[in-house]
Design brief:
Layout lengths: L1 E3 L1 H13 L4 H22 L5 E6 L3 H15 L3 E6 L8 H12 L3 E4 L15 H4 L4 E5 L11 H16 L4 E4 L21 E5 L2 E2 L13 E5 L5 H6 L4 E2 L3 H7 L14 E5 L6 H13 L4 E6 L11 E4 L5 H8 L4 E4 L7 H10 L6 E4 L2 H8 L9 E3 L3 H5 L1
Length: about 400
């Protein structure tokens, strides 16, 4: 899954518009995709057939009003809470608003927070949980800055009532209030159960506050030509189970250990040999035929033993000679954070010509010394806090 910033997504869409692509066509395509997903969710997840749309004033809300029109035609009960006067709306939103009204759609203009009520007529809010889910279309991926005043009150109320009444919340493209570039919710965002994202995933989904707000991700193709996607400056790829499965090699069940892969680990230090042993066991569990460790001192004995080369880290050429026989290398678990280790990594990493996984303490040193040259075929495996460094 390719991942871009919201700024980059807007840039490639603008390129398409400059080439004559009709923005309304994109909106209709997006709406059809969202509509089809909602119908599927209603059937498969037994979601309520009553939908409450919370709409802002941009094209994100325009997408939602087209979806609402399709749902209305399909016989669903749809109610729209419009948070802004329609004369403040984008041109496309105004058009979709008129189309929705022509279908006898119900729109409630919210003038203060008390107008945003989730009960319907005589029903009390406790009944609401059986009858509705919320479609969030307040703010799109262009939002940046801070939620304040009325919009902050709206987001707070949606989050509180969805939790209190067990209402499902589905966001179009991005949860309102989440910054698609930074992943920050300042101070909060809509806490979605599902985010139906359009075109390309946004980097803000995966960093900082993003993972706490997006829920499950579902993709919709709104028709952006592949040539524009290829022009996007993509710095990240999000790997899900399907992507990873496709990368795995087919295993010959008759292979012997030398055909299954020879892995060298540079890991472990005094008091932290457990990390080295755990990572080596993980390499074996993943299918490696042989795993050998390079450490500066003999590792303490344990319930299972490893082939352990004890080599002083000053002896770079001796270590490289051992690595030359391997298929891949991992560096870092329990390696230590002192300056001598950083100096060792600075010297040896540029000389490694094998596929190399950098993890744990190697990432600590890399963050401290960005001039460090990495092996050509490197894979970095940071957890969330390591990524922030």
């Amino acid at each position: 899954m390719r991942v871009v910033s919201s700024i980059e997504m807007a840039r490639i869409e603008t390129l398409a518009y400059s080439d004559g692509v009709n923005a309304e066509k994109y909106m209709l395509n997006a709406a059809i995709g969202v509509f089809q997903i909602l119908i599927k969710l209603i059937k498969e997840k037994k979601l309520p057939k009553k939908i409450t749309v919370i709409a802002g004033k941009g094209n994100n809300a325009g997408d939602a009003l087209v979806v609402a029109k399709y749902l209305l035609k399909k016989g669903y009960d749809v109610k729209i809470f419009q948070l802004f006067p329609i004369d403040e709306a984008s041109k496309l939103l105004k058009k979709q608003y008129d189309n929705f009204i022509k279908e006898n759609g119900k729109v409630i203009f919210v003038k203060n927070i008390d107008d945003l009520a989730f009960e319907d007529g005589g029903e009390n809010e406790n009944e609401c949980k059986k009858n509705t889910f919320i479609l969030d279309a307040i703010l799109g991926t262009g939002f940046k800055g801070e939620l304040t005043g009325f919009l902050l009150d709206v987001v707070n109320k949606i989050n509180e009532k969805s939790k209190e009444l067990n209402l499902k919340v589905i966001s179009i493209d991005i949860p309102s209030g989440l910054n698609g570039n930074t992943g920050k919710a300042t101070p909060i965002a809509i806490r979605s159960d599902i985010t139906i994202y359009l075109g390309l995933a946004k980097i803000g989904f995966f960093i900082n506050d993003g993972p706490n707000y997006i829920g499950n991700l579902i993709y919709v193709d709104f028709g952006l030509d592949e040539k524009y996607k290829r022009l996007a400056k993509i710095k990240l790829e999000y790997m899900d189970k399907i992507n990873l499965k496709n990368l795995l090699p087919k295993i010959d069940k008759k292979r012997h250990k030398y055909e299954a892969g020879f892995v060298i680990g540079i890991a472990g230090s005094e008091g932290m040999y457990g990390a080295a042993k755990l990572s080596s066991l993980a390499a074996l569990r993943s299918g490696s035929g042989i795993v050998k460790m390079i450490t500066q001192k003999e590792m303490p004995s344990s319930f299972y033993e490893l082939v352990n080369f004890v080599i002083d880290f000053e002896n770079i050429e001796d270590i490289l000679a051992i690595i030359s026989k391997a298929d891949s290398v991992f560096v870092g678990p329990g390696l230590g954070r002192d300056e001598a280790v950083e100096d060792f990594l600075f010297k040896i990493l540029p000389k490694i010509n094998k596929k190399t996984i950098l993890d744990a303490d190697s990432l600590f040193h890399l963050a401290n010394n960005l001039k460090m040259i990495l092996p050509k075929d490197s894979v970095l495996t940071p957890h969330k806090n390591e990524m922030k460094r």
